[in-house]
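Internal tracking record. Fields below are filled automatically when a chain is submitted to the structure queue. Please do not edit lines marked as system-generated. If the sequence contains nonstandard residues, flag them in the REMARKS field before resubmitting.
Queue: standard
Priority: normal
Entity type: single polypeptide chain
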Amino acid sequence: MKSTIRRMIFVFSLIFCQFAAASPILPGDIFIVVAFPGRVHRITGGGNFSSATPFASGLSSPYGLAFSPDGRLFTTDILDGTVTDITDGGDFSSATPYAWGLTDPRDIMITRAGQMLVAECGGKKVMDVTAGGDFSGAPAFASGLGFPRGLLETSTGVILVGEEVADEVTDITAGGDFTGVSAFASGINCPYGLTESPDGKIYVSEAYDGNVVDITGGGDFSTAAPFAYGLDTPDEIIFDNTGRLLAVEEFLGNVLDISAGGNSSTVFATGLNLYPQQLAVAPLVADLNDNGIVDGSDLMLLTQDWLKPNGTYVGDISGPDRIPDGKVDMFDFARFANQW
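SYSTEM-GENERATED OUTPUT FOLLOWS
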């Protein structure tokens, strides 16, 4: 009996190691898209990336970048009109996209519930591409927008989009036609990036003015003092897992640390030419109850539905079924144990 158990543990360990090693991405890793030539870099430690080997290459004109709740990494491609899963890294020149048939896709966002939204800047709409496949002629999740760029799901579940031409940020949580709808925040000169701080403040980058503005309460910000200024065409802004606020300078190929606000910034990463765009920070996917740590309470959630076809959390990628295949099994355990 004991020898059988030992063999089972040995086989289990081999399988676990195989699956745990399948993902090269660690919690807190920072990634950035560089449009030309099409590549994605891991820039977690900062530095000069002018001669660095990219994490992903062979992309046409990538722009958006986002992690799913189960830890997969996706990017949009403007010219190809696609969304591609690049989680495993490598050369994607002949990869089959996850979604295609999109018009000028820019930012991509995946909500905590697993809904994948893509801002079609040229299409003036936001598409729900959760199901994957061909979206040529598909109905929009949100339409009537003025060249949408950045997307954000706030901690309260509100979905915001920056409208480049309208100079507004709009709440599109309910979906539908937003022609003539009052904006959440207005008076923003070319809003590109959107992010939320750990304490719930909402920031937007003003690409044309070189500012980052706190728009937490909503309203008209045409005369508001910016949180940070003096930036060169800021695109994406994002908080990393240490609470540091990073901003992309699109034309200079830099990522700046602007946490101090004002005209004070330091270079975090450089050598990212031509046209760095979106940033993404790898999530702590093993934190099943979202309390900021991986501990025994997460293990209890995992074991509660272990191999149950109709368990409470089956199909819920915000819970133990991190790889949404309809069961809580070895694959989910591998992602959990790798971050224990």
